[in-house]
């Protein structure tokens, strides 16, 4: 093919550059519009997240830090701190070991049983209040079903109660650890998924044994994930509330979160003391978030590695199958089974009597207006909160990804959005209760305050999931739109949003699940007339109406399962891995 | 159609130290001209293109498209991409997967508010141009790579933009498809006459498509010329190396003649006296040190005992490796420590087929097919271009 016969243009003499058009006042104002918008957004989420925390601290420092002296001069404080740390660390160890084992096992499943991979995630679906009450039905010293069964064994047949006492610290730690295992599993599984199979195969071909591959290649590659997942689990462990409240509170097992709850829920209400009690959790949470932003400051952790997906290279292992099934039995089937039995019984005793099974408890759940109101409240507030959190998360994610021009605003948004993940919900609950029970916003007892605290708690999830969706989308689709003549608005509505639809649906459904579970913050901001499912369950628990508690717990689980089912069908079964 | 002018364009990327991706670059593009930016990865060609598109924020300089100033850093003008009348074709095609081919091609027309009926016919015309009329109602995922890139081409051209930008659009295609789409693109440009800037690292693409080539190095244009002149007379050693003159032979003046500078010794000038290999080269007297650049098919081989023809440089060489290449042998030889690559033709001269490692041969080239560069990599004067000596 001949080269085109175009003469070389002779070097032209450059005429002077045309004078730039003078920027008018209007164009100057328009140039600042994005910055003003970003600032307004920062102010809004800043107020939402930080105002409650500041309000709490101001009270704690009032009158020469009376709140702090009230909290830390108390003789029980040292014991509480020790219990809190012990519970966090103990459950962290259990969760790390179990979670890593399960994640490894999930890569070693035979192809026919691949579906079992979902099993370790499912405990997330069961609301914490439901799981904890389920465990109590099994291992309560006297009427617990499994305790009763164990007392039939020859070496325990002399006992009147036990051998397990679920209301003691070691068992609370164990149950908390089970709850955290699913989170560690998610992180480590995602880590396995990001390991390029060729790295593993290269090690095998180079002559490493399976164990050598695991310890010399796989585990070092997983280290960042383990560190990150470990920190998340530690934070969750420190903020753990449901288990200690339902199981430990009446038996002298106190942690910071339950102490804080008591300080604001029993008269005399002492917000200052509550704030001071929450301060160690607050500081630790902020420290971890800062540490994570500094150490993992870039978004490279969202970038998936090229090449083939992870294959462990090992043959299917029956240890893996047994391990996962056993975990599923213990962490899922046992507590749910106990709930089913109690909910069908007229009362809770150590003996199971199938002949006396009745649906009366479920009938009562749907007849008592208090309970149905709570269910409706849960659904309405969750849906509204999701509808608010999604757009907020979209804006935050866009700002984090593209707002390089606004360095400081962006860093602030990044930090604020991560805070609800680092700081326990009980601190936020107390802060919201305080902030919205007085001027300028008196919202106590309304659904609005529940929605506000829900939106706050969901900010990290809404942002992170949409951020990783956007990162996966890449820049090219957007650049193609911009160079095709589309402005930012059209690009977002016609290109970004349609392409993010699976992410949005998944994020929405996941948040719905988390919110219908929500217990901790709800318990603090609820009013006797404005309840949600978790709080009404707690009230019946406190009254000792156990069969009704079991029925409510099952209804809660059912509602969440529907949410999860919808989430998985619109966003694929890997939706939880995007956390 | 547009007269594109880039003046003093500079783009730095933050870092320690900051990386200068485009360094005070100026370029004028005539209406209807097809300019190719050619260079290895990291030379700033894609950044230059993205500055033209408005996808990067340059640190200095100005750009005008026709009578529109789209960038003037000092005057604080930097129009966003959607305010520039451009079209762009991406390396990864970037067809939106949720839109049909029709909607993809129609998108730039919708953003520019072309009336619906008119848009309809223009979409069909554009699809017709790239042989995709039958694919209009499919989704991108249902198309092959070549079809996707042709649709992307149609999308880039649909709005008849003043300037079409191509960011390595052919590099994701396999070799055969690449040639097809390249030919189609060349034909389209000849028919439609749009102004284009095309970024590539593939010299054959550049030679085939460009009205002029800009060979870039470290954010600057090293040579800007027609494909013929770039190919025959690379201005610098860098351009020569990039355009296919891969053989480099360092030479030192020794008395009246020239000797091989040892490539292995770092101090080529000082010691390492070697034999004079040629009496005279078309190089001005002022140079004492040059490197000769040669294409593989200009380096000839003959048996060691044969004498090369007159007006040529003959060098004792040793065969390192010989590969069969169809009509020729690809032979790697060492000459005084330099590795050279010769394409020895097999037609009529089956001798080259029998070459094997360690064999001593004579490598030679005609004095006037090589181009000589001084120590700074600039072409020495005194060379008169001639047609390449055919083998």
Describe the structure.
- The complex is a heterodimer of chains A (579) and B (391).
- With 579 residues, chain A is mainly α.
- Chain A has one domain: MetI-like fold.
- Chain A is 70% helix and 1% strand.
- Chain A has 22 helices and two strands.
- Chain A has helices spanning 25-72, 77-107, 128-139, 145-150, 169-194, 197-205, 210-238, 242-248, 256-265, 271-295, 318-344, 360-367, 369-402, 407-422, 425-435, 447-473, 476-483, 488-499, 501-517, 520-525, 533-543, 546-571; strands spanning 437-438, 441-442.
- In chain A, a hairpin with a 2-residue loop joins strand 1 (437-438) and strand 2 (441-442).
- In chain A, helix 1 packs across helix 15 and helix 3 crosses helix 11 (318-344).
- The longest helix of chain A is centred in the first third of the chain and has 48 residues, at 25-72.
- Mean pLDDT of chain A is 81; it is low at 1-20 and 298-309.
- Chain B has 391 residues and is an alpha+beta fold.
- Chain B has two domains: 4-235, P-loop containing nucleotide triphosphate hydrolases (Rossmann fold); 245-373, RNA polymerase II/Efflux pump adaptor protein, barrel-sandwich hybrid domain (OB fold (Dihydrolipoamide Acetyltransferase, E2P)).
- Helices cover 22% and strands 33% of the residues of chain B.
- Chain B is built from eight helices and 21 strands.
- Chain B has helices at residues 45-53, 101-111, 116-129, 145-158, 175-192, 203-209, 227-232, 237-242, and strands spanning 4-13, 19-29, 34-38, 60-65, 68-72, 77-78, 86-89, 163-167, 195-200, 212-217, 220-225, 247-254, 257-260, 276-278, 289-294, 300-303, 312-324, 328-335, 338-345, 360-366, 371-373.
- Chain B has a six-stranded mixed β-sheet, with helices on both faces. A five-stranded antiparallel β-sheet of chain B has the order 2-1-4-5-6, covered by helices on one side. In chain B, strands 14-13-12-15-21 form a five-stranded antiparallel β-sheet.
- Chain B starts with a strand and ends in an 18-residue tail after the last strand.
- Mean pLDDT of chain B is 87; it is low at 263-272 and 385-391.
- The interface between A and B is large, with 32 and 53 residues.
- Chain B: InterPro entries: AAA+_ATPase (IPR003593), ABC_transporter-like_ATP-bd (IPR003439), ABC_transporter-like_CS (IPR017871), ABC_transpr_MalK/UgpC-like (IPR047641), Mo/tungstate-bd_C_term_dom (IPR008995), P-loop_NTPase (IPR027417), Transp-assoc_OB_typ2 (IPR013611).
- Chain B: Keywords: ATP-binding, Nucleotide-binding, Transport.
- Chain B: Residues 4-243 form the ABC transporter domain.
